[in-house]
Design goal:
3 domains; hydrolase; nuclease; hydrolase activity
């Protein structure tokens, strides 16, 4: 064999070797490594092993998902177009039902993404993506249904509920805000550091007489005062510029003077013509009529306290410090508010102990109030006079306050 032929053979061999190595690299690039634990998801994953048995027990299903089977399947059907994913060459997509199950377990338990990843036999990044995308879908689909922008009819219906259930005419909503505890976001300085010496962002809400959210504003810095939170929120701006479709003044039943429709709150909020807060404790102690007003306001305002209590009881993520980017915290909190409204008429299988509405993970705003305008003081005095008149009083009010009952303000 001539020397030139040998050189050609060597060159061809080198080219073939390079081509073979390139093919190996391409194959390695397209191959996807999956841990053995996750390969057994369909055999040992929590959804595949537990869900079939839960479907045969309504009470256990309710306790696990915080909703009835009817609500769960309605939600799956409604969200399906947003939760469907395409199968790939290398793996089968996780179905809408399983994706919703993962998201609801996160909201219901507050367990970490890593803990849920092991339980459901999924990657931690997969669980995180499922929770965030499912929450976004719930907000997109449910919010226009269960928490639409309030119309005048919304306020009229709410006012009817506050009068019939809580004896407070012309009240269209109760307002309160809570600090949602979070891990300090990186490079955030003291923005989220609240007076409770925790890092937090604020959930501000209006609720109706049936303990449903009407308007929710999420995301204010925890360091801000209550007055600035309300003033700078979309809710506060809507109240100030009159874009929330609140009905005009009307005469309360049996009354003689037209009074504005008002929102009722505690001492954490400023007194306005459209927002009533109680008289100071010192004033109420010296004046029985003011004490009656505080009692009537406190009784109606408990609706918002109970609403937050139910929210924290149903979704245990509020018992933990949320550790994620701010935009995801806002999404998760808004999702729980939408689900709360969606589930208010759901059948309930909780025991008396389960109905405890404590709020360990939601903390009150600071009670600092603010300066009050003369016209706002006059409106509150008019309500006070009405509640102490023959037309506006209730049989038990004097008995309750004279018995030394503590009035929450």
């Amino acid at each position: 064999m001539e020397e030139s032929d040998e050189e050609q053979i060597v060159v061809v061999a080198c080219l073939l070797a390079e081509e073979e190595e390139l093919e190996k690299k391409v194959k390695r690039k397209h191959s996807i490594w999956i841990h053995d634990i996750f390969k057994k998801r369909s055999e040992h994953g929590e959804y595949h092993t537990l869900f079939p048995d839960l479907s045969n027990d309504d009470i256990k299903f309710f306790q696990y998902f915080r909703m009835s089977q009817a609500k769960f399947h309605y939600l799956v059907d409604t969200l399906k177009p947003h939760l469907l994913r395409q199968n790939t060459k290398y793996r089968e997509a996780i179905g809408p039902e399983e994706r919703l199950a993962v998201c609801l377990r996160y909201l219901a338990t507050g367990n970490s993404f890593r803990s849920l990843a092991f339980s459901f036999r999924m990657g931690e990044r997969t669980v995180r993506e499922i929770v965030y995308s499912t929450c976004e879908a719930i907000i997109e689909v449910l919010q226009p249904i269960v928490m639409p922008k309030p119309s005048e009819d919304t306020w009229i219906e709410s006012e009817k509920g506050f009068y019939e259930k809580w004896n407070f005419p012309n009240a269209i909503a109760a307002i309160d805000g809570k600090h949602v505890l979070i891990q300090a976001p990186p490079h955030s300085g003291s923005n989220y550091f609240c007076y409770k010496k925790h890092f937090s962002l604020v959930l501000l809400a209006l609720v109706d007489a049936d303990k449903k959210f009407i308007v929710v504003d999420v995301g204010a810095f925890g360091k801000n005062s209550d007055a600035s939170i309300l003033r700078n929120s979309s809710l506060g701006k809507g109240l100030q510029d009159g874009t929330l479709n609140i009905p005009p003044r009307k005469i309360p039943p049996g009354g003689t003077e037209p009074l504005p429709h008002v929102i009722i709150g505690d001492e954490a909020f400023p007194l306005c013509t459209y927002l009533m807060r109680p008289y100071s404790r010192d004033d109420a102690q010296r004046n029985e009529e003011k004490k009656v007003f505080n009692y009537r306001l406190s009784r109606a305002r408990n609706t918002v306290e109970n609403t937050f209590g139910i929210l924290a009881k149903k979704f245990r993520i509020f018992e933990r410090r949320l550790s994620m980017h701010e935009e995801h915290i806002v999404t998760v909190v808004m999702t729980t508010c939408c689900l709360h409204n969606f589930l208010r008429n759901d059948s309930c299988h909780w025991t008396e102990n389960d109905l405890n509405t404590s709020m360990r993970g939601l903390q009150n705003l600071r009670n600092v109030g603010g300066n009050s305008r003369t016209d706002a003081l006059a409106v509150r005095d008019s309500f006070k006079s009405y509640f102490n008149s023959e037309a506006g009083s209730v049989d038990w009010q004097l008995r309750r306050i004279r018995a030394g009952m503590r009035v929450n303000v």
